[in-house]
Design goal:
By secondary structure, the protein is of the alpha+beta class. The protein has helices at 31-45, 48-51; strands at 57-61, 64-68. The protein is built from two helices and two strands; from the N terminus they run ααββ. It has a two-stranded antiparallel ribbon.
Length: 74
């Protein structure tokens, strides 16, 4: 096969669609995670803080705004 016959596809190999349960790809921060948040989490927990769609909690503390997140590297 020549170099010109090779094609590259950056598409995700997982089909995007409805799943009966969470799969590992839902935790990857991509399209499936966004679907999970938009279709399941937001409607169930709808509130003004969640509507901000911020990935941390922003708190006023002594005149200073602090952001706390659960993101971590082990």
């Amino acid at each position: 096969m020549s170099q010109s016959d090779k094609t590259f596809s950056a598409a995700c190999p997982l089909p995007i669609g409805q799943y009966p349960h969470a799969v590992m790809a839902h935790g990857g921060g991509g399209r499936l995670m966004q679907q999970l948040l938009e279709l399941l989490v937001r409607p169930a927990l709808d509130n003004p803080w969640l509507e901000q769609r911020h990935d941390s909690a922003v708190l006023d503390c002594g005149g200073t705004r602090l952001a706390f997140t659960t993101d971590a590297t082990w």
